[in-house]
Known about the structure:
By secondary structure, this protein is an all-alpha fold. Helix content is 94%, strand content 0%.
Amino acid sequence: MAAAAAAAVPLRVCHQEIVKFDLEIKAAVQDIRDCPGPLSALTELNAAVKEKFRHLRGRIQDLEQMAKEQDKESEKQALLREVENHKKQMLSNQAAWRKANLACKIAIDNSEKDQLLQGRDVLRQRKTTKESLAESASNITESLMGISRMMSQQVQQSEETVQTLANSSRTILEANEEFKSMSGTIQLGRKLITKYNRRELTDKLLIFLALALFLATVLYILKKRLFPFL
């Protein structure tokens, strides 16, 4: 009974470790399947899985050895069947491991190809950008040259405008001087006309008085001749 109890302890521990390593392997295989890369990360995961398979294989061998050491044939056969199940499960895990590695490597290769294509696209975009920048710089230079020519033309037109305004100013000044001269002449003419009008009025008064005096003289003579008695 004591020997059986002593053998049951490592047997139970062996079962627990086999289950533990099996679950850890399944989780590690899933990590490999989901691994985005790079290859160095995949290599580290595979190294960990190999180590877990080594421990699992050792525990299965321990369990198989314990089964062979069993005294009862029924217990021996039961443990051997369990060992076979664990071996099948381990083979299934190894197949899943290989498939996960294949899928991961394909995904990494595709990712690297995409990165290369993206790198080419980036280089092409940079080249296109440089060409666009060069073309833009050329267009800007042409625009600046056009603006410079327009500004030169505007400056020339401004100079011509200033010259025209200067000529117009001189013309206005000359016209102003002529106007002043004409104003003096007009004022002199106005004075002369006023003086002439006054002289004309005086002449009219003198003529009227002379005519009145003449008529008075004629009437006086006629009166003396026709009416001497008056």
